[in-house]
Amino acid sequence: MNPLLRQHIESISLDQPLGLYIHVPFCRDRCTYCSFTSTIDLSLEHLYLKRILQDLEDWGNYFCKPRLDTIYLGGGTPSVLSLHSLQLISQAIHSEFDTNNLLEATLEANPGALSTVWLKVARRAGWNRISLGIQSLDDTLLQCLGRIHSAEQAIDAIKICADADFNHISADLLIGVPEQHLEHVLRDTICLIEAGIDHLSVYLLDLDKQCRLKSQIDNGLLKLPTEDQVVETYQALQKHLSSLGFIPYEISNYSRPGSQSVHNLRYWQRRPYFGVGPSAASNIGNLRWTENEDIHKWINSLDEPEIQLLSPEESLAEIPLLALRMRDGVNWHTLRELAKANDLDALALKWEKELAPFMKLGLLQQDGEHMRLTTEGMLLSNQVFQIFV
After folding, report:
1. Residue 34 half-sphere exposure, CB side, CA atoms within 13 Å?
2. Which of 65, 72, 54 is nearest to 1 (CA)?
3. 3-class DSSP state for residue 24?
4. Which one, of 188, 106, 98, 105, lies nearest residue 141 by Cα?
5. Which of 333, 368, 378, 383 has the lowest CB atom count within 10 Å?
6. 218: Cβ–Cβ under 8 A, 6 or more apart, which residues?
7. Per-position b or e across 20-34, b if 16+ CB within 10 A of its CB
8. Looking at residue 247, what is its pLDDT?
9. Domains observed in the chain
């Protein structure tokens, strides 16, 4: 463990269960829009596994077998891991941590890198929720995005996940993709729900960082939909999914009642979690750290985590910044009380003055003690969030 990180952690007490995130950087191929930490060099899996198992043992020992209530195996593409690696990681988690009160164990998968055998082994190992990176059921768009699966494989993947007896099945969809049509997006959601999902994440295509798709657009080879078209799609999805029984509980997430992602909720509720693997982030108390994103440095333990200790002002600002992403919003009365207890009344008052124009514009609404974004406000949420940054 990094000495500086150890120095900060020693002052933290764990008074509630943790969430564990494990980043798997491997993929069969790299999507055209991807800017995440990933590699197609699967020959590194053995070395990756060795470091992951060591980290899990180290953290388990350091925190004296801490309690976990959620686990998330993300990527990358966790479903490209060998059965051997999956089983050893699963065994290490349950050996090094207290999982007696585990609420949820999620793994991500690509429909093009999935088998019935792999799923059944994962289910027996305790994984009970699966998130499928589907993105679209339009084969032309899938090809544009560099996905390795077809629409037919995506639907088949949902069915074999159900056959493997996963408690919850989630799918990801992308909007704002070149040549995407609203009627196709609405059709996709119906097909996915009929196939058996109970949770849907809808993400706006983000091309802030350099990637193949961004280069194609910058060079005029592809054209993004207009802002008005994206707004129309988002608003139509809100109404459409609600009519199908999928409640929008967060800006990008919809589910049937009781099928929300417990692990992802902990991020927005500022509950503690830690991550292992290249680029994995951790958040315990006012301490934040992120593992080195250079896969080779991380594998060879040459990495230095990026460490941040939040000030009282930064810690308070995170509450509305994250809570406003959720449908329930932020309890402003509780926030004001917390600000008062930390001598930050002036900061809370400043925020209220800066938020007032968004109220008048209909981007925010006040319901009793709670402040929340409206549907239109969710589309322009970054403008609101800038107040707290």
Report:
1. 21
2. 54
3. strand
4. 188
5. 368
6. none
7. bbbbbbbbeebbbbb
8. 94
9. 3-268 (3.20.20.70), 314-389 (1.10.10.920)
- Residue 214: C-alpha distances to residues 31, 207, 221 (Å): 12, 6, 10
Angle between helix 312-323 and 345-360 (nearest 10): 30
Phi, psi of 328 (to 5 degrees): -75, -20
Positions of E strands within 48-101: 68-75
Q: How far apart are CA 258 and CA 245, in angstroms?
A: 12
- Which ranges constitute the DSSP H helices of 300-344? 312-323, 332-341
Mean pLDDT across 1-19:
78
| Neighbour order of strands in the sheet with 330-331 | 330-331, 370-373, 364-367
Closest CA to 43 of 83, 82, 90: 82
pTM over 0.90: yes
Which position has the higher pLDDT, 116 or 11? 116
Reference 71, options 86, 82, 49, 54; nearest CA is 86
Place of tokens 């985590």: 305
Place of tokens 């929720």: 129
292: helix, strand or coil: coil
What's the CA gap between 46 and 275, in Å, rounded?
A: 19
Q: In what order do the strands lie in the sheet with 306-309?
A: 247-250, 253-255, 199-204, 168-175, 129-135, 104-109, 68-75, 18-24, 273-276, 281-284, 287-290, 306-309
- Which residue type is seen at 100? N
Angle CA 378–380–386, to nearest 5: 110
Calpha distance 158→146 (Å, rounded): 20
Q: Per residue in 305-353, pLDDT tens?
A: 899 999 999 999 999 999 999 999 999 999 999 999 999 999 999 999 9
